[in-house]
Write a structure and sequence with these properties.
alpha+beta, 2 domains, seven-stranded antiparallel β-sheet, 5 helices, 9 strands, disordered N terminus, PGRL1, transmembrane helix
Length: about 260
Amino acid sequence: MAAASSSFTAHIIGSTVPEFSRNPRNGAPFSVRISSSSNSPTTRDELAEGPYCIYVGPIETASKETLEALYRQARDAYYSGDPLIVDDMFDRVELKLRWYGSKCVVKYPRCSLRRQSTYADAEEDLSQVFALASIWILFLAFGSSACLVPVVYTVGLAYQEAFNPGFSYINQAFAFSMLNAILFMALGSVIGYPIASASVKVLEGLWRNDLVALKGACPNCGEEVFAFVKSSQSNNSPHRANCHVCECLLEFRTKFEAL
């Protein structure tokens, strides 16, 4: 992976759920103190036990079970009006759980009253990236073969002629073969070089995450949809696609953060 990368949030029709980065940020350890406020008298057992803390440590090394427990408690506390952690920390925990593939952070299509539209979350689809990379690797092999095979053939003819006796009719046949080999090499370069060059550019883009494959549920029918989005796109120019089932127009909106 390249040294410089970017993390982004991806969504369909205006989602705002963060997507994970392949270069996770180092986070400082933190603990969450959970306490309850009540008007009832405190018993001796409660006083002896006191408030308790959940120690998570660095988010990047925390286990899935620990983060899920913290996520549920923080979410319930937020809905009750007494948040436990700041929004940025909550987003980082949610982002890490998405990287783990946790089911507790899955969000389904929902409505936005402000935008008057439905939206759903999108996530990176590595299987589509690997499938696209496999296709372009085949194109790279074909283009490289078209360039290299004529060169190897021409070099072989020249090497063979170097050990042949110098009869005139052999020299004439060799000259004719060399002419055909040079034409074959030129044709192979014209065809193979553009294919190989384009394949290398696409594979480099996939390696640097310049082209990202996304998948998510269609907000209209709920079927899974796919799209390839360039990481250079901004929020003002969303990627548009159509659902292959209900043919509804979809917009993939992304938000990028430089690391």
